[in-house]
């Protein structure tokens, strides 16, 4: 088997919830050794978000495969001493502790640089390490609200959160790319650069298009469910059999094809109400009435067949069950088995980035503290030492 790109890289992560574990799992997928530091007893509180996956949390199973779990009480002197030993042999340190906690524990970027000059520290916070909101806690839905994202989702009757932890995912992706950049910089120049990402600023980046639209258009994009706020027709419509199908018209060629080949109304192509993208948005209700009428004449299968023939992008609006059975995932062999604590096996999706000649690691999800004794033994602790640490509730 070809060596994975991050083989030989050690990551120590004092992590919890979603953003930091999402960052480090991607490093683990590509071969990094990720030592996940958890609280003695309960561990990462994301382990208890739910119990739906053979007794394990769906969040935890998704985010923590291929890691080693070490329990440490970081408020104890012995716990801090063990963490120091780990950091001495690590390449990357990731933490998403509560505001101010890392600095109080001597784990801020500047303090770490003095003790471990080759270590790349990565901090994930809610609103950044400085500024008026540095001390505020931030969870995913709070950040969705603060960035204005929630004001864009939902429909005319009310707003809605995005259905996945999008702020956490955005921050995790930027932290991952920041760590890769810093590893590359260290390898090519010898310079170590600390990485800092906040959930707020990660999601703020994704909000730039509606921000420009609002700043220069004078009004925010409307909240219109599955319809696109600034392109029409682009949205879901209900076919005669009750299934929703989403279609997207992106340019004038596609608009003409929709009118002539799907709607059967070639005269609409030159209709002044619909002659340009902006005009179609301005007359969305009239346009939607025409599309809805045509959808009502056809079953969803016929709708998608005719749209395909016209070269119009379309897709059925799937539920989760349909996604799980999606033919693309099956035909492209994207599922792999991953073992859970207790021995159950569940399917997990391969990481979305394929690197030629490599196979991502898809190892087990660890139990709380599963690797504590083996890691401490590596650091030179004897069985008696480990028993003493247990008795003192350090591990």
What do these coordinates show?
The chain is α/β, with parallel strands linked by helices and 395 residues long. The protein folds into 2 domains: 10-207 and 327-391, 3-Layer(aba) Sandwich (Rossmann fold), CATH 3.40.50.10540; 234-316, formyl-coa transferase, domain 3 (2-Layer Sandwich). 39% of the residues lie in helices and 14% in strands. The protein has 17 helices and 13 strands. It has helices at 19-29, 58-63, 77-88, 101-104, 109-115, 140-146, 166-189, 199-206, 208-217, 252-263, 277-282, 284-295, 300-309, 320-324, 327-331, 372-378, 383-391, and strands spanning 10-14, 33-38, 68-71, 92-95, 120-125, 154-155, 158-159, 195-198, 234-238, 244-248, 313-316, 335-339, 345-349. The strands form 4 sheets. A 6-stranded parallel β-sheet has the order 3-2-1-4-5-8, sandwiched between helices. Strands 9-10-11 form a 3-stranded antiparallel β-sheet, with helices on one face. The mean pLDDT is 95.
Tell me the count of domains. 2
- H/I helix tally: 17
Q: What is the class of the largest domain in the CATH system?
A: Alpha Beta
Structural class: alpha/beta
Distance between the termini: 35 Å
Radius of gyration: 26 Å
Order of helices and strands: EHEHEHEHHEHEEHEHHEEHHHHEHHEEHH
Uncertain parts: none
* The CATH superfamily title of the largest domain: Crotonobetainyl-coa:carnitine coa-transferase, domain 1
- Helix content range: 25-40%
């Amino acid at each position: 088997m070809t060596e994975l790109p991050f083989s030989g890289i050690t990551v120590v992560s004092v992590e919890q919830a979603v953003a930091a574990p999402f960052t480090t799992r991607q490093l683990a997928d590509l071969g990094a050794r990720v030592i996940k530091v958890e609280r003695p007893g309960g561990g990462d509180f994301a382990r208890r978000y739910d119990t739906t996956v053979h007794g394990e949390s769906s969040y935890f199973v998704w985010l923590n495969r291929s890691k080693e779990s070490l329990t440490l009480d970081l408020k104890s002197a012995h716990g801090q001493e063990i963490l120091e030993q780990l950091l001495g042999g690590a390449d990357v340190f990731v933490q998403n502790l509560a505001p101010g906690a890392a600095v109080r524990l001597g784990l801020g970027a500047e303090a770490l640089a003095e003790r471990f000059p080759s270590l790349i520290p990565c901090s994930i916070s809610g609103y950044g390490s400085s500024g008026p909101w540095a001390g505020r806690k931030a969870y995913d839905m709070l950040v969705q609200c603060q960035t204005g994202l929630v004001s864009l989702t939902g429909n005319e009757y009310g707003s809605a959160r995005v259905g996945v932890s999008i702020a956490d995912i955005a921050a995790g992706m930027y932290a991952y790319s920041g760590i890769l950049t810093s590893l590359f910089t260290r390898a090519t120049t010898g310079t170590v650069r600390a990485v800092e990402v906040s959930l707020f600023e990660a999601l703020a980046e994704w909000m730039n298009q509606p921000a420009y639209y609002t700043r220069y258009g004078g009004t925010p994009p409307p909240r219109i469910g599955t319809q696109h706020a600034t392109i029409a027709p682009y949205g879901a419509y209900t076919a005669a059999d009750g299934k929703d199908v989403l279609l997207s018209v992106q340019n004038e060629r596609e608009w003409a094809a929709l009118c002539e080949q799907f709607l059967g109304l070639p005269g609409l192509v030159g209709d002044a109400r619909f002659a340009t993208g902006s005009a179609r948005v301005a007359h969305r209700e009239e346009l939607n009435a025409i599309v809805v009428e045509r959808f009502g004449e056809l079953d969803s299968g016929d709708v998608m067949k005719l749209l395909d023939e016209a070269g119009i992008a379309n897709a059925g609006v799937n539920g989760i069950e349909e996604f799980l059975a999606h033919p693309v995932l099956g035909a492209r062999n994207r599922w792999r088995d991953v073992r859970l604590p207790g021995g159950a096996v569940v399917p997990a999706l391969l990481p979305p980035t394929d690197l030629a000649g490599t196979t991502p690691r898809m190892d087990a999800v660890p139990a709380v503290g599963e690797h504590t004794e083996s890691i401490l033994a590596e650091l030179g602790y004897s069985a008696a030492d480990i028993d003493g640490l247990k008795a003192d509730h350090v591990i």
